[in-house]
Design brief:
78% helix, 85 residues
Length: 85
Amino acid sequence: MSKYKNVNEGIVDRFIDAVFNKVGKGLESATLNTLKKTDPKLAKDIESLQKTKKDIEKRLSKQSKKAIANNEIPPGIEWLKTQIK
């Protein structure tokens, strides 16, 4: 008989954190690909997360280019300056 680890909040948090980190860095491991094949809902959620990441990157790059063209500080840099103080 198999012995399984009890699933608690810490394990779930670490799993979700790992998925977000991999998608955020643009790296997909073999484990994520296998999970996507076995769980279609998870695959759909990961694809949605990747699409959202691309949309945010595109929007920020457009805002940055526009700000630089107007000799202004890009919005992301302006936010970072407020966090450093």
